[in-house]
Amino acid sequence: MTTYLQKDISLNNRHSRKKLATKKQAKLIQLLHNLSQSGFNLAEMIAFLEKTQILDRLHLNLMKTDLLNGCSLSEMMRHLGFPDGIVTQLSLAEAHGNTKKCLGKVEDYLVQTQKIRQKTIEVVTYPIILLTFLILIVLGLRHYLMPQIEKQSTLTYFLNNFPVYLLSLSIIILLTVIALVIRWRKLGKMKQIIQYSRIPLLASFLKLYMTAFYAREWGNLISQGIELSQIVTIMSIEKSDLIKEIGLDMRQSFLEGQSFHEKVKGYPFFSDELSLMIEYGEIKGKLGQELDIYGQLTWDTYFRKLFQATQIIQPFIFMIVALIIVMIYAAMLLPMYNTIGGTI
User: Fold this and answer.
1) Average pLDDT, integer, range 165-179
2) Does the CA dihedral 267-272-277-279 come out positive or negative?
3) Who wins on pLDDT, 7 or 82?
4) What pLDDT shows up at residue 238?
5) I want to staple 279 with a disulfide (CB 3.0 to 4.6 A). Which of 9, 180, 261, 338 is the partner?
6) What's the CA gap between 28 and 107, in Å, rounded?
7) Where does the Type II secretion system protein GspF domain lie (predicted)?
8) What gap in Å lies between CA 29 and CA 326, rounded to an integer?
């Protein structure tokens, strides 16, 4: 059977397929996990899906076509528009023969991701609406109130020129983003991750994600008795560019005599604890179990910190809103106060 390891993940972008909604992705993985625990094979799972309302006819026919073409589960999920990280996890699980366990972990991951996404939407929606109204108020003040105020102040000058500032800032941000995207696309995936790991606010989350992902996947592969040389070979033929580059880099280092934990320690996008955990696990002879447990603990830490970050977003936006409100009131009241002869 053709596996995802022989497919280029970028091919998905060349075909105009309707991506399965995120909520339906979570429901599908949950159902597939339950069916796999009940002993269903892939063909039986798809037959069962025909009796449910989780997938529409388009996506169901796509899975049936993939089944007839001998595609693996990871390939099917790729065609349904699942994130590359999830497809890669399923692909590696097919390599070490523990797809059932992987489906359970993917299910947990999607549940946690949905919670974080929902919480982020909740804390951001109201401040964004408030900011929109404030921008409209500022524009209204500029057209209706400012012309009636004879004496100009710094704040009234700001309000008069607010649209220019807003447009200029938007153009600068857009051009900066475009320049960064063009520049970073020229770099390899691993070099991009290394650059990301040097950004202060992003680095901690990136290290947690990378550490959790690779610790768990390496742990699963090692627990199944797969040798380290085979693991890096699997990684080096994986069509996820990042995994492939890391696999090739590690294989070269191993040929030069560098140990596993020493190589991992040299990557800035992994936490320092990971190399220590690998060294400790190699000494005890339980590296697979140690990495699996450590990976799960790191996932828990990653999602906890993400949730905490969502709690900071709303107060930060409210501070900006409060500052704009104070500026608006000052712009309106100070000129009026000076006009009637008041002094500050």
Assistant:
1) 86
2) positive
3) 82
4) 76
5) 261
6) 9
7) 29-147, 215-335
8) 49
Burial of 92 (0-12, 13-18, 19+ CB in 10 A): buried
User: What per-residue confidence (pLDDT) applies to 270?
Assistant: 92
Statement: residue 27 has pLDDT above 70: yes
The C-alpha torsion from 9 through 101 and 275 to 205, rounded to 10°, is 60
Residue type, 216: R
Q: How confident is the model at residue 149, as a pLDDT?
A: 55
What is the rounded CA–CA span in Å between residue 84 and residue 16? 17
Report residue 112 CA to chain centroid gap: 12
Q: Is the CB of residue 220 less than 8 Å from the CB of residue 92?
A: yes
| The two structure tokens encoding residue 16 | 């105009």
Percent share of the chain, pLDDT over 70? 82
| Tokens, residue 11 | 């091919």
Q: Chain-centre distance of CA 13, in angstroms?
A: 18
Reply yes or no on whether the pLDDT at 143 is more than 70. no
* 3 state SS for 20-60: CCHHHHHHHHHHHHHHHHCCCCHHHHHHHHCCCCCCCHHHH
Average pLDDT on 211-229 reads 84
Length of the chain: 344
What mean pLDDT comes out for the span 59-77?
87
The candidate with the shortest Cα–Cα distance to 158, out of 298, 330, 339, 336, is 330
Where b means 16+ CB within 10 Å and e means fewer, 12-33 reads: beeeeeeebeeebbbbbbbbbb
| Tens digits of residue pLDDT in 88-114 | 888 878 876 778 888 888 888 888 888
Which tokens is 154 given?
A: 């710094």
Does the global pTM surpass 0.70?
A: no
143 by Cβ neighbours in 10 Å (0-12 / 13-18 / 19+) ranks as exposed
Query: Rounded to a whole number, what is the distance in angstroms from the first to the last CA of the chain?
Result: 82
